[in-house]
């Protein structure tokens, strides 16, 4: 660009306003200059160099002005060049705008021409379609007949031929698709329905695979081949794939479940064991059929045996869950289901059979019964069994109680002991239920064992209560039992039989104290029966002891002979009680007689008038002790278990002639019988009739200074069961103190 052109394009620059900060900058410059000058010329000797400073500043000012002019000139030239370039750009834009306007006009003219050609294009497309139809018209005319023939083939279950025909029709439709521009001819509208009909027929054949494998395996093979070919075929763009393989697999599963678990009706109460037994037979047969017949008809990837096993397992599991969600099962059904699910199903009789391959293994699948199901079934079984056991035991007890009032005595066994089948029935019922529960699981066995012990405890309490009612009604005369005591003795034998056999209820590995509550209940029952027998004995003997001691007693043995005679007659049936209970019963009977004897002595009915009567009373005590010992030895009681020797110890108190030695005898009595009290000794000393108050106090004081009881001393309660007469005020001290206080008051 020449300078003249630039000058022409250069705009005229008018002086603009001063910089907004020019004035402030000038002030700052002046201030800085003054500060500098004042610093330089502060001293007088510096004024001589003022000319040099002036010339130097003039040169600097000129240099700055020249530089400023150069910068401003360069800036003005750049602005001039930019303005020229903008002018050229404006001219170019205007030219482009004019060219675009011309192109728009040309395009509008072409679109109008195209609209005039549109009918021609449609005519061409129609011509092409008609041309394609004219070539395919013979084949299109055969489509309706082919469709009808294919439907006939499907109905005749000729799956391969039907599938080939359908594929030909579908290929024809695809061939017509492009020439017709995606137009769907009415003749092909039923083709998809025909494919669906074939799919349903293949699915139905797969659902009956087990039956077809036995009767018509070729049909099953054809159905599976059609499903596999259709699944592996590449579908045209835009068509949904037909996954007939999955449809076949689902049909196989659904058909199998429908065969064995399709009925919505649950087994009726009591019919569950039969239903489970039918499954036990049918499922292994079904798996064997799948392995031998169905698997060869299907591709290996179908895993027919595994599919069969898993399908049967899941269907059975759903059926059982549905069964457990319904009404509560009975005991027999709950037991059958537990035993079948836990032992039979996975055992060698069914899914664990050695004849089945590893594909049929279902042990790793979800179990048929969950822990909650097992808990529910065990609770149901135990509750129902408990109700039945309770009813059985009550019936056994009612039958036993009904015999107590009959005219005949208790039945006896060959050994002559009283016998009843009730203990054996009770233990057999409980033991059998525990044994049956052990066939299912250890947890169920423990539950039934706990229930059995609980019911046995309830039975023993009911048995004890029945005996009490029986005794009360007999003694009150409401229902007199002709054989009251024999049936009590028979009850003792029942208790003995239960005690000796209750160990059969002990589980292996159970703690040794598991039977402790039952054993305690049996001991309590034994004590109660013994007490009832002894109460009857006391009622027999009480009138006879009314005259003992007395003057007649001193002179004649008839009173005790009557006691021995009646006691012997009462205890005659004790021999029908089994050992060792008979020894316990005889010992308690002998102690009851001795206690009755001691009670009579403590009543203070007799006071000896002299030494002769004391000797006579002592001799009577010796004779009575010997007679009682002889009586119970004859009945079978061992001598070391008898209490009659206490009469010999009392004899020494009466037979002693020197009252000064009474303290030794009293101390010896306490050593032999630690439960003797001062009241008892005081009452016995009162029989002598020759002791002063001081002598009795001295004798009683020996009880305080007595030595500890002898190791051979009697540990059985004797004197503590004999009430001693102790007339005293209501505010009396304890019995020993009362006796001493009474003597002192006299």
UniProtKB/TrEMBL annotation:
One of its GO terms (biological process) is exocytosis. Pfam families: Sec6 (PF06046). It is found in: Cytoplasmic vesicle, Secretory vesicle. One of its GO terms (cellular component) is transport vesicle. Residues 1-25 are annotated as: Disordered. Its main location: cytoplasm. It comes from the Eukaryota. Keywords: Cytoplasmic vesicle, Exocytosis. GO terms for molecular function: SNARE binding. InterPro entries: EXOC3/Sec6, EXOC3/Sec6_C. Belongs to the SEC6 family. PANTHER family: EXOCYST COMPLEX COMPONENT 3-LIKE PROTEIN, EXOCYST COMPLEX COMPONENT SEC6-RELATED. Interacts with EXOC2, EXOC4 and EXOC5; may be part of the exocyst. As part of the exocyst, may play a role in regulated exocytosis of insulin granules. This is Exocyst complex component 3-like protein. The lineage of its organism: Eukaryota, Metazoa, Chordata, Craniata, Vertebrata.
């Amino acid at each position: 660009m020449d300078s003249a052109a630039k000058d022409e394009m250069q705009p005229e620059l008018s002086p603009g306003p001063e910089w907004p900060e020019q004035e402030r900058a000038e002030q700052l410059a002046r201030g800085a200059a003054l500060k500098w000058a004042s610093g330089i010329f502060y001293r007088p000797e510096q004024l001589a160099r003022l000319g040099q400073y002036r010339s130097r500043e003039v040169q600097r000012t000129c240099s700055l002005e020249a530089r400023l002019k150069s910068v401003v000139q360069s800036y003005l030239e750049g602005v001039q060049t930019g303005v020229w370039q903008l002018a050229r750009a404006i001219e170019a834009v205007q030219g482009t705008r004019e060219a675009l306007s011309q192109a728009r006009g040309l395009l509008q003219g072409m679109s109008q021409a195209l609209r005039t050609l549109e009918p021609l294009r449609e005519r061409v497309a129609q011509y092409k379609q008609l041309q394609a139809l004219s070539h395919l018209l013979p084949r299109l005319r055969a489509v309706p007949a082919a469709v009808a023939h294919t439907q006939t083939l499907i109905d005749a279950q000729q799956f391969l031929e039907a599938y080939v025909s359908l594929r030909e029709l579908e290929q024809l439709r695809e061939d017509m698709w492009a020439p017709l521009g995606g137009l769907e001819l009415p003749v092909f509208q039923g083709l998809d329905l025909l494919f669906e009909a074939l799919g349903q027929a293949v699915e139905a054949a797969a659902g009956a695979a087990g039956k077809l494998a036995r009767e018509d395996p070729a049909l099953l093979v054809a159905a599976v081949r059609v499903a596999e070919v259709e699944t592996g075929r590449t579908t045209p763009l835009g068509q949904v794939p037909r996954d007939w393989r999955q449809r076949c697999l689902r049909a196989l599963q659904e058909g199998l479940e429908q065969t064995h678990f399709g009925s919505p009706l649950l087994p009726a109460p009591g019919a569950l064991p039969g239903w489970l037994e039918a499954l036990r037979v049918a499922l292994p047969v079904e798996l064997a059929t799948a392995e031998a017949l169905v698997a060869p008809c299907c591709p290996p990837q179908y895993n027919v045996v595994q599919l069969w096993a898993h399908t049967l397992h899941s269907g059975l599991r759903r059926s059982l869950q549905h069964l457990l969600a319904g009404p509560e099962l009975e005991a027999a059904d709950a037991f059958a289901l537990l035993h079948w699910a836990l032992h039979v199903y996975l055992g060698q009789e069914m899914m664990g059979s050695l004849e089945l391959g590893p594909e049929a293994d279902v042990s790793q699948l979800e179990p048929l019964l969950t822990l909650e199901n097992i808990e529910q079934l065990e609770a149901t079984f135990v509750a129902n069994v408990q109700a039945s056991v309770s009813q059985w035991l009550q019936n056994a007890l009612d039958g036993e109680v009904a015999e107590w009032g009959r005219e005949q005595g208790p039945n006896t066994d060959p050994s002559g002991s009283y016998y009843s089948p009730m203990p054996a029935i009770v233990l057999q019922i409980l033991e059998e239920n525990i044994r049956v529960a052990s066939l299912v699981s250890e947890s169920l066995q423990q539950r039934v064992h706990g229930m059995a012990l609980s019911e046995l405890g309830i039975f023993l309490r009911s048995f004890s209560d029945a005996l009490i009612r029986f005794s009360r009604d007999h003694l009150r005369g409401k229902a007199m039992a002709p054989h009251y005591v024999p049936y009590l003795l028979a009850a003792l034998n029942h208790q003995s039989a239960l005690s000796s056999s209750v160990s059969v209820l002990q589980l292996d590995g159970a703690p040794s104290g598991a039977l402790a509550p039952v054993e305690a209940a049996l001991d309590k029952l034994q004590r109660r029966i013994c007490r009832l027998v002894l109460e009857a004995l006391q009622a027999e003997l009480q009138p006879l002891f009314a005259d003992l001691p007395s003057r007649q007693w001193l002179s004649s043995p008839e009173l005790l002979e009557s006691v021995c005679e009646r006691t012997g007659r009462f205890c005659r049936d004790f021999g029908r009680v089994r050992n060792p209970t008979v020894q316990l019963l005889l010992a308690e009977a002998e102690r009851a007689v001795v206690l009755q004897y001691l009670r009579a002595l403590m009543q203070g009915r007799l006071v000896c008038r002299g030494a002769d009567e004391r000797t006579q009373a002592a001799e009577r005590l010796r004779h009575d002790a010997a007679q009682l010992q002889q009586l119970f030895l004859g009945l079978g009681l061992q001598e070391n278990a008898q209490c009659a020797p206490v009469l010999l110890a009392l004899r020494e108190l009466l037979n002693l002639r020197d009252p000064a030695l009474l303290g030794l005898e009293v101390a010896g009595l306490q050593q032999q019988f630690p439960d003797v009290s001062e009241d008892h000794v005081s009452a016995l000393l009162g029989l002598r009739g020759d002791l002063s108050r001081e002598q009795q106090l001295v004798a009683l004081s020996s009880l305080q200074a007595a030595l500890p009881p002898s190791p051979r001393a009697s540990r059985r309660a004797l004197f503590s069961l004999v009430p001693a007469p102790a007339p005293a005020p209501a505010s009396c001290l304890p019995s020993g103190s009362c006796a001493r206080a009474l003597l002192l008051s006299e």
